């Protein structure tokens, strides 16, 4: 307003500044960095054109350490933002997952079994696996098979041994591991008229009963001992707490410690 009054009305600068409450220093001030700002803008534009993957950090380090310019990073960043040279951030694509099925609760024994694998290591670092089988109706542990390798044939042998004393289940709930989607297990299930129910990929809560059982086996057994030999792990899984399990005499692979959880 003071500049307009001086230009159009011809009043003095002092009078215009007093009238509008502006100091004469402020009125007479002209930015001295305009040429430098244009230089910075040109350099930033050239850098981002030549190095399209460079963000502000690399551009500023190049100007400071390679070109030797002493400009403050706040100033350079202000010009960088004004030129809208910021790298475009590609938003993450969110996968639309289907609503998981509700966990079914059986109303009698041998309606639905669940089985799942676990892994642990011996004292010398060798890895071994465990196959846990349980009845979903009363959370009864039916068998724990332990060995270095448990292929589909070994899974079938364990199931056959449990069925001898327990009876045949209607459905066995499993995840999508290679042993469970194998042709060998599928043929065995067709032969015995057993349904293999695979949970949805990425939905372990659909196998919640055996997952909770796995945690108990981990905390109450595996984390409590340093197992030196695979035979030791097999013996503990087969004979530990035998008197606590009513079917011990028929189920040599079932651990009584985890029989009713």
Automatic annotation (TrEMBL):
Superkingdom as given in the UniProt entry: Bacteria
Signal sequence coordinates: none
Any single Pfam family the record assigns to this protein: rve
Domain Integrase catalytic as annotated: residue spans: 105-218
PROSITE patterns hit by this protein: INTEGRASE
Gene Ontology molecular function: nucleic acid binding
Protein name: Putative transposase
């Amino acid at each position: 307003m003071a500049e307009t009054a001086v230009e159009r009305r011809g009043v003095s600068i002092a009078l215009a500044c007093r009238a509008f409450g502006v100091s004469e220093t402020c009125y007479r001030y002209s930015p001295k960095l305009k040429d430098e700002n244009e230089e910075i803008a040109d350099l930033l534009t050239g850098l981002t054109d030549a190095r399209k993957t460079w963000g502000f950090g690399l551009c500023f380090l190049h100007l400071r350490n390679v070109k030797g310019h002493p400009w403050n990073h706040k100033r350079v960043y202000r010009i960088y933002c004004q030129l809208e040279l910021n790298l475009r951030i590609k938003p993450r694509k969110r996968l639309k997952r289907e609503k998981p099925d509700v966990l079914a609760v059986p109303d009698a024994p041998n309606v639905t079994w669940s089985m799942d694998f676990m892994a642990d290591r011996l004292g010398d670092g060798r890895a071994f696996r465990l196959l846990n089988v349980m009845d979903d109706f009363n959370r009864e542990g039916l068998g724990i098979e332990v060995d270095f390798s448990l292929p589909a044939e070994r899974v079938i042998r364990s199931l056959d041994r449990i069925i001898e004393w327990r009876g045949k289940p209607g459905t066995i709930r499993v995840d999508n591991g290679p042993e469970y989607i194998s042709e060998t297990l599928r043929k065995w299930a067709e032969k015995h008229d057993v349904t293999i129910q695979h949970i949805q990929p990425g939905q372990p809560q659909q196998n919640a009963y055996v997952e909770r059982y796995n945690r108990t086996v981990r905390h109450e057994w595996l984390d409590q001992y340093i197992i030196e030999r695979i035979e030791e792990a097999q013996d503990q899984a087969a004979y530990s707490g035998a008197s606590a399990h009513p079917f011990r005499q028929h189920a040599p692979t079932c651990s009584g410690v985890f029989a009713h959880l």
